[in-house]
Amino acid sequence: MRRSSWQRPLGQLNQHQCFPFFWLDVGDADQVGARSHVDGEVLLVISGSVYPAAGRLATLTNPGSRLAWSRAIPHHVAICGSCDDGTVTTSKTLILWDVDHTLIENGGVSKETYALAFELLVGTPPAARPQTDGRTDRSIMAELFAANGVAMTEAHRDALFPTLIEAMKRNADALRLRGHALAGADAALTAVSRDGSFVQSVLTGNIPENAFTKLATFGLHKHLDFEVGGFGSDSIVRADLVAASQAKAGSKYATLFDRGNTILVGDTTRDVEAGVKGGARVLAVATGVDAVEVLRTAGADLVLKDLADTESVLRCLREIASAGAQGS
Ligand SMILES: [Mg+2]
């Protein structure tokens, strides 16, 4: 028996019974199961039936399985994993939402915020305007400095994030007046939060403070776990934000998140590229500058024209999650 391989991750959870059967309660998820570890094999027990489960067990978490488990014993979730490396793999999927033009429309306030930050740092407003779509905060500001012929100094770099926070603070009222939540955004976030198989956060080029301000302005922050997001403060390269978020989420949820169980939702080809290069599948929404066909050609797994139909959003996320679990 290689019981020791279970002990570290299990210690982070509520263990209701001891080896060889584990009933684990990790909150309000709607799945149930147990597992045993016999002669070096991992077995998953669902409603009295025993399933061999070498490797990732997410393949067992199709909708039919979930229903069966839920009817058997509600309010528990089966924790699945590999006994070989001691890494617990739950059936959870990490959903990472882009902010601008995916969840909210900022009414031009984002560009004004970068321009104001430039003015606060340099002393004069920029003549050339910022380019934003899908870029990270550091990238936007670096390009803005270059476009205006101003060399970015170490002092500018040190003051960059506090200045962006200050600029966003000054523009918060304008955002409230001129921006809005995109159709279906609140309903989609709420629906995803009710599905125990999902963890949801943000993947945005914004620094965390400003991403929070933008979403909280329209009440969209409630169902997002900001502790595990990928932000513009993590890297200047958007694709790197996927791994940054996966590492944070992996640590918090004792789960290995990779391309098989991470879905990025975004509106630009840069979001699609970040998913493809960074290690996530992509649900694209054509509520930004890029059209459905452009996003599809860029490599999005699925594309919606918007988030207005909550059932469609959930169906797409579950379809992508299922494909990821099966490695297809
Ligand atoms: Mg966007």
What does this structure look like?
It is a single chain. Helices cover 40% and strands 15% of the residues. It has 328 residues and is α/β, with parallel strands linked by helices. A hairpin with a 2-residue loop joins strand 3 (34-38) and strand 4 (41-46). It has 12 helices and 14 strands. The strands form 5 sheets. The chain has a 5-stranded parallel β-sheet, with helices on both faces. A 3-stranded antiparallel β-sheet has the order 3-4-5. Residues 1-90 have low confidence and may be disordered. The protein folds into 3 domains: 4-89, no CATH class; 93-104 and 181-325, 3-Layer(aba) Sandwich (Rossmann fold), CATH 3.40.50; 106-178. Magnesium ion is lined by residues 98, 100-102, 134, 266-268, 288.
Keywords:
globular; single chain; disordered N terminus; binds magnesium ion; 14 strands; 328 residues; Rossmann fold; 3 domains; 3-stranded antiparallel beta sheet; alpha/beta
